[in-house]
Design goal:
The protein is α+β, with helices and mostly antiparallel strands. The protein is built from 3 helices and 9 strands. The strands form 3 sheets. A 5-stranded antiparallel beta sheet has the order 2-3-4-7-8, sandwiched between helices. Strands 1-9 form a two-stranded parallel sheet. A hairpin with a 5-residue loop joins strand 7 and strand 8.
Length: about 180
């Protein structure tokens, strides 16, 4: 089922998400719905707060990039209760966009390597170091679980330059090809 994606201004996007227990109701169905929603919107990642749920669940699909990045062939995962434990000092700048901020793309500096813990869909624990593009996607999505959006990493000047677009979103004017839930 395709879910509406919550757009900038929705309070749930600024909440700190809570860990869930293995008996969370209909978790497998939620993960499937989140994957379908992300795919329909042509995204590579989606966090539960972006569909209105303040819980620590993220889905990622990097298979769509496998023509250019063959290492991601078949990469489609869910991360339950993910936490970043440690980050490298080396920062890398790359342009990011967000399904909750349609039409905004900005360069963001993030650590190139992160140490993460999470549960997979079968509730198996993982503790690993991740680097490169996957680390960036995970940091972007895991930020949503802390109530942080990628625009929070921008300089004051860059924020000023996108203020008009953000104000339009607050007025319920979000232009995109997927189903959204705006403030108005």
């Amino acid at each position: 089922m395709i879910l509406p994606i919550y757009v900038y201004g929705q309070p749930v996007l600024r909440e700190e998400a809570k860990d869930i227990t293995p008996d969370y109701p209909d978790l497998k169905q939620l993960i499937q719905n989140m994957h379908e929603t992300m795919d329909r919107a042509d995204g590579v990642g989606l966090a539960a707060p972006q569909v209105g749920l303040p819980i620590r669940v993220v889905v990622v699909n990097l298979d769509v990039l496998s023509d250019d990045m063959p290492e991601f062939k078949g990469f489609r995962k869910a991360y339950i209760n993910p936490h970043i434990i440690e980050t490298s000092e080396e920062l890398v700048s790359m342009e990011e966009g967000c399904l909750s901020l349609p039409g905004i793309h900005e360069s963001v500096k993030r650590p190139d390597k992160i140490h993460v813990t999470y549960l997979d869909e079968d509730m198996n624990p993982h503790d690993e170091w991740v680097e490169g593009y996957l680390a960036r996607v995970m940091q972007h999505e895991f930020d949503h679980l802390e109530g942080v959006m990628f625009i929070d990493h921008l300089s004051g000047l860059r924020k000023q330059m996108i203020r008009g677009k953000l104000n339009n979103m607050l007025k319920g004017k979000a232009r995109c090809s997927y189903k959204v839930k705006t403030v108005k």
